[in-house]
Amino acid sequence: MVYFSKRLLLVFALMDFISLSNSIQNDSDVESRMDFLQSSMDRMEHRILTLTKTVNRLSKRKKDEHVMFYATLSSDTVLNINSIVKFNEIQFDEGADFNSGDGVFVSPVSGVFMFSWTTLTYSGKSIDTELRVENVVKAKQIISLGSSAGSIQSTQFVICRVNEKDHVWIQTGAGFTTENFFDHLFKGSKSSFMGILLHVV
After folding, report:
1. CA–CA separation, 153 vs 11, rounded Å?
2. What distance in Å separates the CA atoms of residue 79 and residue 182, rounded to the nearest whole number?
3. How far is residue 193 from each of residues 12, 26, 38, 60, 104, measured CA to CA in Å?
4. pLDDT at residue 6 above 80?
5. What secondary structure does DSSP assign to 44-80, as a single string?
6. What confidence category does residue 113 fall into, taking pLDDT thresholds of 50, 70 and 90?
7. What percent of the chain has pLDDT over 90?
């Protein structure tokens, strides 16, 4: 009887040990699954963050690929030497990068641009202008009319590289004339300034 009781106690002890082992195993499985879920969530969060950055970058690039402006003078203007021409009528500005208050374009991106400006003047008058990028002359244009020439306009084009945040403007030159006469309107023609981004670099 004692032997039987010992065997019975041994069986119960073995059953408790098995039950405890299963419980420990179950707890271990739960922890493993929790670790796996946490790791999966971390990876998913990283992928979402990467995707968000990619979308934002592509959206900015799409916006930057359409940079252009066109501005005109609203009235007759006479400027001395080394004076910025303030084209104060914005006809078009994709990106709001041209300031009609000071006549300066600030590039939102590094790229190759085409700029052009048109000057309109009349008989007996002269205009000496140049396009500057960060105060470096990239192109010049001079009009000097005789007394019976009438109203004449001239346009200059230039293609150049511009860095992000560079300032671009038109100003009068230093030596050809001290009085630059800009006629703002003649039969629909106006003195104007424009720029178009050709491609990003």
Report:
1. 111
2. 8
3. 97, 76, 58, 25, 10
4. no
5. HHHHHHHHHHHHHHHHHHHHHT--EEEEE-SS-EEE-
6. very high
7. 52
Q: Which residue has the tokens 């493993």?
A: 32
Backbone angles phi, psi at 146, to 5 degrees: -75, 175
**Among the ranges given (15-19, 133-137, 177-181), the one the predictor scored with the smallest mean pLDDT:** 15-19
Cα angle: 60, vertex 61, 65; to 5 degrees:
120
Task: Give the per-residue pLDDT at 54.
Answer: 65
Per residue in 135-167, pLDDT tens? 999 999 999 998 888 888 899 999 999 999 999
Euclidean distance between CA atoms 52 and 56, whole angstroms: 6
Q: What angle do CA 50, 51, 53 make, to 5 degrees?
A: 65
Name residues whose C-beta falls within 8 Å of residue 25's C-beta, 6 or more positions apart in sequence.
Answer: none
Q: Which residues have C-beta within 8 Å of that of residue 49, sequence separation ≥ 6?
A: none
The span from the CA of 76 to the CA of 190, in Å, is 10
Amino acid 52: pLDDT: 73
What phi, psi does 50 have (nearest 5°)? Answer: -65, -45
H or E element, residue 26? helix 2-64
Name the amino acid, one letter, at 28: S
Identify whether the C-beta of residue 80 lies closer than 8 Å to the C-beta of residue 167.
Answer: no
